[in-house]
Design a protein that fits this description.
Keywords: Glycosyltransferase, Transferase. InterPro entries: Collagen_mod_GT25, Glyco_trans_25. With about 375 residues, the protein is an alpha/beta fold. The chain has one domain (about 35-315, about 330-355). About 30% of the residues lie in helices and about 15% in strands. The protein has helices spanning about 5-25, 70-85, 120-135, 155-165, 225-235, 265-275, 285-290, 345-350; strands spanning about 40-45, 60-65, 90-95, 140-145, 150, 190-195, 200, 210-215, 245-250, 250-255, 260, 300, 305-310. Helix 3 runs antiparallel to helix 6 (about 265-275). The longest helix has 19 residues, at about 5-25.
Length: about 375
């Protein structure tokens, strides 16, 4: 097909616009390996007029979630809450049974414990997620486990957090911007963001942090015991305090229900945790060890923006740690019968709007007589 100069120029403009649109909201600059410094403690309040809701991938390039292939119930639930809240799930990474990790591919275990323990399969699934990020040159990705819950207003929650990390991050050089003042999603120099931890401990002596107001963060008293303890004992909040978000350099996050990785972070994780190095404990404890020693640039948001959806039956866990479930007859053990704590408006609870009476049948006409 022959194109005239005019048509060729128009075609070039269309291609340029397409490529530009694809990158909007997801592009990161190349991540520097320069040092990371924590700034002085500061207290900042959100609410700037320039804050906008996050996009469909929560301002990351992709959202990945991990699920055992047989957990179609959880996959159905993930599809529903994503659709109801306008979230796009880009990729499902299949969970891996520990028995399927060949003995030659298992991370060397220095402690000589049973190498087929459940955490081996969990590690492999997360490692597959990191490798997916690396193989596809993804610059940032949110990694979720399939029993996670988030707020109905999740885009507002993440959009505000993103804005704070780009504009008010007193913990990073250049206040979260790049060396030349450039702006990146969630700041320009990080490997890992923790927002789905089930328990968190800050550094025992370095209490560098910043705070901001989030109208979608519920009262401290609505959280689990672990987070009430953290926020009250470590940061001196009260049960009735609401709208609180607090950012720290990551020190000790337990659980991996939700976290984000940059391209550089995925490479560091795959190298440091089981890929080239020995590992003795589950990956969340491995993360803690590496965070403690400053081998990743990471931030944690407290209270977390992603929480566990607990189901009161055998479907609550895929980790065979010997748990026995004896659900009572009056307890709903389905996915719909679960619950979560620490959200102002649970997305999974919000699925109830899909139930109800949406059609009324016409009554038969009364006979005359």
């Amino acid at each position: 097909m022959f194109l005239t100069p005019r048509a060729l120029g128009a075609y070039a403009i269309v291609v340029l616009l397409f490529l530009t649109i694809r990158q909007l909201g997801t592009t990161h600059t190349s991540y520097s390996t320069s040092g990371w410094t924590s700034g002085k403690l500061s207290s900042l309040r959100g609410g700037a007029s320039s804050v906008r809701p996050a996009n469909a991938t929560l301002d990351f390039q992709e959202i990945i979630y991990i699920s055992m292939p047989y957990r179609t119930d959880r996959q159905d639930a993930m599809a529903l809450i994503a659709a109801q809240t306008g979230i796009k799930l880009n990729k499902m990474i299949a969970g891996v049974p520990s028995a399927d990790v060949h003995e030659k591919a298992r991370p060397i275990n220095k402690s000589k414990e049973d190498p087929s323990k459940p955490w081996v399969g969990v590690w492999r699934a997360h490692a597959d997620a990191w490798r997916y990020i690396i193989d596809n040159n993804i610059q940032s990705a949110l990694i979720l486990e399939d029993d996670v819950d988030w707020d109905v207003n999740v885009k507002e929650v993440f959009g505000l957090w993103n804005w704070q990390m780009k504009n008010n991050n007193s913990l990073a050089e250049n206040n979260g911007r790049g060396p030349n003042g450039e702006e990146c999603e969630y700041g320009c120099n990080w490997d890992h963001l923790s927002m789905g931890q089930c328990m968190y401990k800050p550094h025992p002596t370095d209490r560098s942090h910043f705070t901001y107001h989030d109208p979608n963060s519920p009262a401290i008293g609505s959280h689990t015991i672990n987070f009430k303890k953290e926020m009250k004992e470590q940061w001196h909040y009260k049960d009735e305090d609401a709208g609180v978000r607090l950012i720290t350099p990551t020190y000790s996050p337990l659980c991996t229900m939700g976290y984000a990785m940059t391209q550089r972070g995925a490479r560091r994780a795959l190298y440091q945790i089981g890929g080239f190095q020995a590992m003795d404990v589950p990956i969340d404890l491995e993360f803690i060890d590496h965070m403690n020693h400053g081998r990743m640039v990471s931030y944690t948001i407290s209270p977390p923006t992603l929480v566990k959806w607990k189901v009161f039956g055998p479907g609550d866990t895929d980790n065979d740690y010997g748990h026995e479930f004896k659900a009572k007859e009056d307890v709903d053990a389905t996915q719909g019968g679960g619950q979560s704590k620490g959200l102002l408006n649970s997305a999974r609870e919000g699925l109830k709007v899909l139930d109800g009476q949406f059609h009324k049948w016409k009554e038969a006409p009364k006979k005359q007589g």
